[in-house]
Design brief:
By secondary structure, the protein is mainly β. It contains no helices and three strands.
Length: 46
């Protein structure tokens, strides 16, 4: 949870053959649980 009351969501993509994390995204969801999230950071390994 952020200082503003939003839920902080972190997701990862895992390469199925190696089991390694190859990408991650951070987003926030409004405290009201609205239908729209704000995407903040995304990283993808080459």
């Amino acid at each position: 949870m952020t200082a503003g009351g939003e839920q902080l969501m972190v997701s990862a993509a895992v390469h199925s053959a190696s089991g390694e994390v190859v990408a991650a995204t951070v987003a926030t969801v409004p405290a009201s649980g609205g239908p729209v999230a704000d995407q903040h950071d995304t990283a993808v390994l080459p």
